[in-house]
């Protein structure tokens, strides 16, 4: 199993604390594996098998537990008296009104509850109301490039070769150990994509027109790295001969972001220090999905690496927005408890005009937070332009 160390440490840190641990993320990003890693850890520090109750509600063996009363009763009967119990429920959203069972388990003494879900819908409505202030979320993503390099079994590959694979085939954990060829990987990713589209989007939202849903997915995927509005998506599809309202597009797009196949980055007015509601950007959870959908050419590398940087910043715990500065744009405004860092992303800036264009927005920012230009150029120790650091993207991805 790939050791997801950062996520595992979050579970260890919150062990036996009076909060429900909710692990969210797209299908096949490694949530079940994380539970297995954590259960192994618990056993290594003396927790017995009888103290651990693990249920995967995707497994047909637990089909009778898809009702909250049955789920609660099943777990209740397995609880050990006078010992701490660790309850793991995978894909909990498959159980109707699961929040009632989770809440009832949570209020019991000596019960530590961990749940996973593949849809943000599970964190809305009654769960949030019932468990307000009593749960934390661990937002899980597929592999970072650092993790991918650790997982890739072939020691003969150079870092650059691994990066090209990562760019082309994406970051789902199982992909790293597969035979790296287009047909094998494409088949695997296609299976994940279709499961998400059917189970997590269409079925949950009652969407019957799958072709129209796919058109929306491809429209957004082709616009990665470019500001886009719900109206523009609607206009694009209407111009191709399909009639769809803005409200319907909005509903479908919300369902796609809820399933974690897309992430939305809002615009942020750097000078005015306020968030803007128009022309957001969307990024795919995995570049392999985008390449499968669009058969992207090498000339599209700028959008792909921008997508990778966005996901990496999420991996590092940043809140990520698009920066607006008058008529200029900063690719990413990354903020956390320590402050803000500004990022520009470009495949290459060896051309002087391209370099000047990429530096211009960063130079106009009136504050003194760090400003970084990420490129694929080989630049040795890096370059510094009046306080703006240029860093090789691959080195940055591997720098923990």
UniProtKB/TrEMBL annotation:
Taxonomically, what lineage is the organism?
A: Bacteria, Bacillati, Bacillota, Clostridia, Peptostreptococcales
Q: Which Pfam families match?
A: AAA_14, DUF4143
Classify the source by domain of life.
Bacteria
Domain AAA positions: 20-149
Q: Where does the record place the DUF4143 domain?
A: 199-346
> Where in the sequence is the signal peptide annotated?
none
Gene3D superfamilies tied to this protein: P-loop containing nucleotide triphosphate hydrolases
How is this protein named in the record?
AAA family ATPase
């Amino acid at each position: 199993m790939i050791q997801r160390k950062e996520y595992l440490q979050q579970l260890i840190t919150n062990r036996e604390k009076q909060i429900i641990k909710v692990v969210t993320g797209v299908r096949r990003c490694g949530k079940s594996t994380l539970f297995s890693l954590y259960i192994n850890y618990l056993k290594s520090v003396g927790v017995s098998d009888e103290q651990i109750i693990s249920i995967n509600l995707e497994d047909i063996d637990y089909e009778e537990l898809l009702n909250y009363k049955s789920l609660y009763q099943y777990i209740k009967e397995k609880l050990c008296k006078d010992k701490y119990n660790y309850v793991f429920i995978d894909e909990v959203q498959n159980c109707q009104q699961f929040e009632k069972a989770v809440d009832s388990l949570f209020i019991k003494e000596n019960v530590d509850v961990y749940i996973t879900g593949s849809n943000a819908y599970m964190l809305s409505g009654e769960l949030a109301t019932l468990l307000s202030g009593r749960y934390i979320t661990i937002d899980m993503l597929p592999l970072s490039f650092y993790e991918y390099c650790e997982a890739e079994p072939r020691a003969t590959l150079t870092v650059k070769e691994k990066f090209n694979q990562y760019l082309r085939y994406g970051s789902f954990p199982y992909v790293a150990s597969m035979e790296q060829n287009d047909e094998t990987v494409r088949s695997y990713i296609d299976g994940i994509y279709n499961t998400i589209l059917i189970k997590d989007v269409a079925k949950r939202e009652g969407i019957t027109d799958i072709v129209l849903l796919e058109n929306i997915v491809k429209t957004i995927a082709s616009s990665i790295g470019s500001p886009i509005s719900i109206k523009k998506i609607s206009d694009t599809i209407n111009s191709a001969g399909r009639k769809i309202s803005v409200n319907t597009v909005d509903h479908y797009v919300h369902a796609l972001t809820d399933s974690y196949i897309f992430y939305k980055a809002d615009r942020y007015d750097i000078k005015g220090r306020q968030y803007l509601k128009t022309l957001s950007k969307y990024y795919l959870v995995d570049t392999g999905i985008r390449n499968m959908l669009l058969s992207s050419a090498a000339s599209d590398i700028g959008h792909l690496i921008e997508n990778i940087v966005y996901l990496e910043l999420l991996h590092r715990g940043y809140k990520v927005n698009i920066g607006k500065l008058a008529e200029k744009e900063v690719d990413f405004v990354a903020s956390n408890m320590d402050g803000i860092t500004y990022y520009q992303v470009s495949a290459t800036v060896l051309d002087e005009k391209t370099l000047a264009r990429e530096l211009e927005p960063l130079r106009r920012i009136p504050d003194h937070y760090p400003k970084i230009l990420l490129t694929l150029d080989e630049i040795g120790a890096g370059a510094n332009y009046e306080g703006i650091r240029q860093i090789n993207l691959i080195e940055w991805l591997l720098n923990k």
